[in-house]
User: Fold these one by one.
Assistant:
Number 1:
Amino acid sequence: ETQVWRVDPNAPDLEHTPQIIAAAEKLVQGEIVAFPTETVYGLGGNAKLQDSVRKIYEAKGRPSDNPLIVHVATLEQVRDICTEIHPIAKKLIDTFWPGPLTLVLPSRGEVSNAVTAGLSTVAVRMPSHPVARALILASNLPIAAPSANLSGRPSPTRADHVFYDLDGRIAGIVDGGETGVGVESTVVDCTTTPITILRPGGISKEQLVEVVGAVADDPGLTRSDQIPKAPGMKYKHYAPQAMMYLVPSGKEKICELVATEKNNGRRIGVLTTEENRDSYPDADVVLVCGKRSEPATVAHNLFDVLRRFDQKNVDAIYSETFSEEGIGKAIMNRMSKAAGGRIIE
Ligand code: TXA
Ligand code: MG
């Protein structure tokens, strides 16, 4: 049975509250527990214990060749896990940690082989969410944690998303309310020169460039003839049950598509923004993912909206698209995966 511990993320001295102590005890015993981070909920286990890490893969139905991120609360924990933190990695740490940035660094072999899926590198991140930090400190462990969804589903941004996917499969869920950023961390490979973005996320390329100058993008992210360097990026992900289509040209085209589909007797959903919420009177379901003028709100709501479409029984979803500036890059990466790459020009 899956326990739920409710916590107020703003409560003082979280590390010593009964709920966090209970969740940390489970981790110490080798069980796996979901918890909020500033990006999405993670499904955590002791990164040094093979058996715990196995449980994570099993609960998610995750392919074993897809390595996990190790979550830490101190630099001492990073030094224990990685052989070196070179000056550029150190600069990123000083600027963006704690926060939504994951660094791929050379592994010391201290964490379980299952965490790194046999690679010589390990992905490490120091989350800023007070509940995540408290749980890591209370357990005194490096915590391996992928997003706490069933493999292939949208990442969870609320405890009830986790419950829906993993009830009965994990020891517990620390419910600290909605996450903030809403899309996952940016994954940066620090073993290349220049550093390479393996997954766009909560810290934008523009922000990274400002701090370290040169930053490359993994060509595998955009080119179909290259395999992504982050194994997770090659999988189908975030997909709602209905076929989703991105429509970059926007409102008029979407209205035209809705009209045609309605003639064929299909039930149609539109994924839109605050600014355009009244533009699709003929659609069966219109869901708003945020304000176009405030992309952070779109990132915050995106996965929840994708999950809500599954409750609405639509046959297809037509979606507006966004500029790839800043956080827009991560938004469009997740949206095009949710749409399985289907774009209607
Ligand atoms: O925001 C986040 O990063 C969330 C929260 C829970 O921290 N976690 C998350 O984990 O998104 P996950 O497992 O869903 O995604 C981790 C990504 C995958 O694409 C994986 O392939 C990649 O990081 N990755 C992990 N270790 C790697 C390594 N050593 N080299 C290259 N890619 C790696
Ligand atoms: Mg994930």
Number 2:
Amino acid sequence: NASSKIRNFSIIAHIDHGKSTLADRLIEYTGTMSTRELKEQVLDSMDLERERGITIKLQAVRLRYKAKNGEVYELNLIDTPGHVDFSYEVSRSLAACEGALLVVDAAQGIEAQTLANVYLALENDLEIIPVINKIDLPSAEPDRVKQEIEDVIGIDASEAILASAKVGIGVEEILEAIVQRIPPPKGDDEEPLKSLIFDSKFDSYKGAIPYIRLFDGKVSKGTNIRMMSTGKMFEITEVGVFTPGMTIVDELRAGQVGYIAGSIKNVGDTRVGDTVTDNDHAAAEPLSGYRKAVSMVFCGLYPVETSDFDRLKDALEKLQLNDASLMYENETSAALGFGFRCGFLGLLHMEIIQERLEREFGLSIITTAPSVVYKVNTTAKEQVFIDNPALLPPEGKIESIEEPVVKATIMVPSEYVGTIMELNQEKRGTFLNMDYITASRVSLYYELPLSEIVYDYFDQLKSRTKGYASLDYELIGYKEADLVKLDIMLNAEIVDALSFIVHKDKAYSRGRKLVEKLRSLIPRQMFEIPVQAVIGAKVIARENIRAMRKDVLAKCYGGDISRKRKLLEKQKEGKKRMKQVGSVEIPQDAFMAVLKMD
Ligand code: GDP
Ligand code: MG
């Protein structure tokens, strides 16, 4: 049987435990690429990902491995993103596999995302091969970590492989374990085509390209495929595999992993988790587990220069081609003019898009503070979803407001338990449970409002625990809370882009801190500017930005001309990210100030 020589696997790990480095070693060892070709960490192909040391976009590579038993195997390594924002994509790539390498740092032990990923792997019935990485480090404690894997995850770690992806220890042993311990894919070439989309990308010549894992059937040039969630149909013009570049093959069969192309114009038609079938010989049922990507965090994006609106629109269109989870629609702000309301999977996703707009498209943009989606029950007995605080109905029309809540898992050395509890208290958390992983490490479970996580939660967690805490969370639903909208008035006018929704108990302190912060961030202008925080018609805080005394250049009178020019340049530089709002110039930082309040 042809598929007996196939193994489909993933690598799961907490960030920085060595997933990408290990993937590189496997690619190198199997000679899939020459060392010269092998750029550092080929699987993390975007510059941004490399800089941040995270994997955002999944990819797949076919490795050809001649095992010790003399047989040649086709190993498909399916990469998973390493951040909590992308957990649905992780679950879909794991669904494409029969096994997973569980990489745990020998010095750090199990972290929150190790656990979250293991659960996803277990849900998908994967064979898990524990790999204890970084054993070259002097601080490595492989025996302790082995014990942790047994105690916390409850899987047998006696055959865990001790490895160093950096130095190259244990690589052959890992490849042998993949062949021997991970089962080959089951499936039948003669059954109707049933394949899972676990990723996609956009190619300017070939269109949107779904990456698929076939469970049953085959696909080749000329097959008429149908996307089972949308019913859209396409004729296949090319099928291929990743080596890691795209390599055309004649067909893909049950058990295999590869890509298909068929003049699919829109990546929105290649949804992760969807099932692709053959329309002329269709599967009765799609694969289970499909769901549509939901945006968790929204913000406004506005060009600094009004004339850049069309360029921003083009840029978003282009980014969306490669990223079906990016949502955007037109939005108008009284303060900022024409722009876009954008939806993201999480904060990291948001930051990545912002950075790409600036770096890849050279745009200068103003981003408003991120907001979650509130559910508002109106007095007219309607339910409206609000992703922009400025659009909250007036107080008199609101019966109640519900906010999204998450279940958070925080793993931390036990000496920080008190600190974490304090932080969660401040963040309106509800304690659920606590587990000792070992005598010195603890898992804490909390219910927390998503909006509190969006604010500086993660930074706080890291700084209060010297970087030792790790976090994972999942959305569990909506809960009613006592929330109000806080508006900011500059020069007696509400700046809609600075409005935010906050818990009543925190409104005063946040309002006070925000006006203080704004006073320090907004440069002095020719006249005095009052900065006020208001709830409804009530002013809760006020500061004044005093008028500028003299022209900056006055200092330079009589000075040399080059110094003067430098100053002017500097002023211009500073202006780049300033937005004229009415008669006041507001810097980008001011719009994000609300995030850095506590
Ligand atoms: P990922 O976030 O799981 O993909 O982790 P990376 O592969 O990017 O590795 C994170 C960091 O750990 C990098 O600086 C690697 O060079 C380092 N690293 C990875 N494997 C090893 C190892 O076996 N030993 C040591 N000492 N460092 C390693
Ligand atoms: Mg990585």
